[in-house]
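Quick one from the shared queue. A colleague (R.T.) flagged Site-specific recombinase XerD as missing a structural entry in our internal table.

Convert sequence to structure tokens.
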Amino acid sequence: MSTDAAPDTQPARQPKQRGDRTDSSIKRLPNGKGWRARPTLGTDPVTGKQVRPTKVFRTKGEAAQWVTEQRQQWASATWAPKSIQTFDEVADHWLNLREADPSIGPNTVRADRESLAYARRAFGAVAVQKLTPAALADWSATLTGKGGKALAPATKRRAIIRLKSVMAHAKRMRWLTYDPSAELESPEQKSVTATDADDI
């Protein structure tokens, strides 16, 4: 009579996927009146530190949903931290990079500054994360020069294009989750001179 033990038919234990867990990222507040979510998303490529955004919610379900959204945004490279960068600060950063680029002439950078003056007067002190598509569309529709004078189509077009350049730069720097100026249209320009082309 054989004494061999029967083979173990229990399925192998699968390792837990760290990215799928949320319990370790969500904890009840000490006073019991809410839940703190603090997921570890990854490593900041600039600082080398872990990225761990924190937010408090009324229910655990709301916290879990936010954690999932944060991880999805990080995985798709659309995540941005809460930022207080103003439009003026982003514009200055963009202009500084333009000045440092040897392929861009000083006349072009000077034209950039002039074209950005319209947007900076309107919302230079506003945090870029607070700018909305509606606010930018309203600004574009009512864009005028000093004293309420109408702008030439080419001037208005360059002002809008420069605004879009700064907002796109903010997204590249991860100061924005999405670009609210992406769908903003600029006036069509029937003809572009060589000088205008350098500015555009």
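Residues 153-172 form the longest helix (20 residues).
Residues 18-75 form one domain.
Added to the table.
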